Amino acid sequence: MVSFILRLLNTAGLLLLILIFAMPFVWMLSTSLKTLPETMIFPPEWIPHHPVWSNYIDAWQTGPFLHYLTNSVIISVSILILQMLTIIPASYAFARYKFIGSGFLFGVVMVTLMIPNQLIFLPVYLELSAFKLLNTHLGLILPFASSAFGIFLLRQAFRQISDELLEAARLDQAAEWKIIVRIMVPMVKPVLVTFALFSFIAHWNDYFWPLVMTTNEVARTLPIGIAKIREVEGVGTWNILMAGNVILVAPILVAFFLSQRHIIKAFVYNGVK
Q1: What is the distance between the alpha carbons of residues 40 and 237, in angstroms, rounded to a whole number?
Q2: pLDDT, tens digit, for every residue of 103-141?
Q3: Distance (Å, rounded) from C-alpha 89 to C-alpha 127?
Q4: pTM (global) more than 0.90
Q5: How far is CA 242 from CA 59, 140, 142, 189, in A?
Q6: Residue 83 exposed, middle or buried by CB count within 10 Å (0-12, 13-18, 19+)
Q7: Taking the domains of the chain in order of start, what are their residue ranges?
């Protein structure tokens, strides 16, 4: 009886959490399909009487949304590729090699986690300006070519792989890059996918960095385009603004649902180890 009550309370708690986290998304979707007068009704109504799908067309036509979307894809994917190319060998070196200063260097990497982007944007801005990289894709990509969080996460995963497996590969005269690509990376695939998702979401949603590093439309991203809706349509046009937000969030939700199996494996992997 006691175990049944505990399971019931656990289920109720989980359902409550799901409701709390789902409500903003449901409200955003609902508002995106309302007419402007319906968004002002109090008390608010969850279900629009006559869904207005043209709100998405209006949001898309507010600015060069396809251009913003293309920029977001190019920048987010490029950052992710560069991060994978840098954090995998760096994490492997920190996890498997004991060289002079390795502990100090890893400590320096960890310290950078405590430095917010807002603190370093001015020197980075001046540096990018000196190299004429403002208002370019490279100016938004290169500052994030590596990730201290990714190095930490992957280093911990690499350290959990048994030494015997690596020694067996070396006895078979496998080169280090083959050990990384054919043994290490496949074994930590859930961790890599989890990091990739977190990284993609962070840079897809990034508003601050594209805002301060661009002064024209050449390299601006989707979050800047969403903010532009308020300038063009007006502050009170919540239906158009929410339609733009649905466009912004949709790729992230798709990516999450496609990779949730790997995310669960990553938590199980770390928990079992």
Answers
A1: 10
A2: 889 899 889 888 888 888 889 999 999 999 999 999 999
A3: 27
A4: no
A5: 9, 26, 31, 35
A6: buried
A7: 2-272
